[in-house]
Amino acid sequence: MTEQDTRAQRLARLAAQVDWSKVTDLYTGERYGPEVLTGLWATDRVTAGRTCMDLRFAAIGDGSSVSGAAAEILPFLVEAARDPDVTVRFEILQTIADIAGTGNTAPTAKVDRILEGRWRPTVDAAWPAAWERAAEELLPLLDDRDYVIRGGAVRALAQSAAHADTLIADFRTRFDDEPDPWSAGCLVLGVGELARHATRRRGEALAWLRHRMTVEGKGEEPDINEDVDAWLAWDEEIRHDVRLQAVEALCRALPGHADPRYAPVTTAALLTSSAATAYPPAECFFSRIDVIAEADRRLGADLPGRLALAHALLRHDRTDERAGGLRIAATLMSRWRSAVPALLPAVAELVGDARPQNRAFALRVLAMCGAAAHPWADLVATHLTPAGEPDELTREHAAWALSRMGDDRCVPYLLELLRTRGDFTHRPTGSIDRPWNRSDLSLAEALAPFAARGDVPFAPLPEDPAAGEQIPHDHRSDAMAVVRRLCRLPADPAQVAPHLLALLDADERPVRHDNWRSVRDDEALCAAARAVLDAV
Question: Which Pfam families does the entry mention (predicted)?
């Protein structure tokens, strides 16, 4: 019997075990059949990856519920993950982890208020037993030769609530012998995830994670050319710096718990080069900037700790760290008013960064802050010409920043842009983090503040923030919506004042966070609130 015949028999056996009537696309209703097995075992990674994604959507859709397809496809997903000939084993393990994670969270998930009483996430009745059986079949993958597969197996098994106590002990033992730093980090995260479900070993898991938060790793790599013996000793030692993963694991195990140690540990770990070496594999699609942004997000409402982290990264000698610092600075400024004066000077220094993406991002942050950034207008203006700024995208952001500051030195550049191309270039701004990875600059909006000039062929946008019309993409409509909701709260109009004063006095902005326009939204909301207060 040929290898091809053997594989055909194997796939036929797996296909016969599946009730294909349950394996459908949750959005289109398309029914899948045994052909997905051929796709999953395809030697072409693109075909295999697309099939894996299709099966994920059939099982959990948008990730909120577990459908009847999940228990049907799980056995052959596990078998595919264990087969070295399958080209997308890690992606399959991710899919299994996503389904199992949804199965754990869906029963207690919160739903939007508008959906209350109409819809709730569900978990198919066959899934829990199917997952409990399948989890044991993934255990051999913890010893796989490929560190990516070992880490993927850990992430999937970390969702096995039924085996939490046993797996915590196993993961801790494996950590001491795991040679790869990324896989070691996965083991730490796995302990944190399992601690949420453990009964007997929860306490020792939390204590172990707190200890790992204090271990700095084995330090800098010695120069092999200077001391071979020192380098060999360093290379053979297994002592990973998993402080970031320990903080993340504790956040997972203790959701809502704010530990004052998280911020200094996170800052120290991100500033240590040995921590930077634990890059996730390419299959995870995470960059160093993503790692930094996520580490900052976990610090939540700890503004002093997050400000200290941002300052340290903005001054760092590595470009990715400075890029991460800019991302954090933009996030904090868009959420807290006090973060603007605290971080603006450090952000402005990066307008001269060696990396053009960092220069563009720094200019965009200055633009986000509007008039508050005007003290740096002269610096920004030096980036309007090719002689002062070789990167075209950065020149556009310099012009946008000057427009937001109200400085008309941008007008000649904007008019030339209007004449030659008609609008800004629409491409990423240098951050790969999704909320910031867009360029939504508007040439009409940039020229609008200078419409009184005879050479600007644009009428200004309406200046009345209380105007009833809804201008597409206008920040005022969002701000006024918040004011209107607050004004409808009390029966007596005089009772509006405390609510509006709270908007003006609070440091945290009431408008949406992590958005280029949030500072402007906040300014518009405050102006509207003052107008309402004057009328009450």
Answer: HEAT_2 (PF13646)
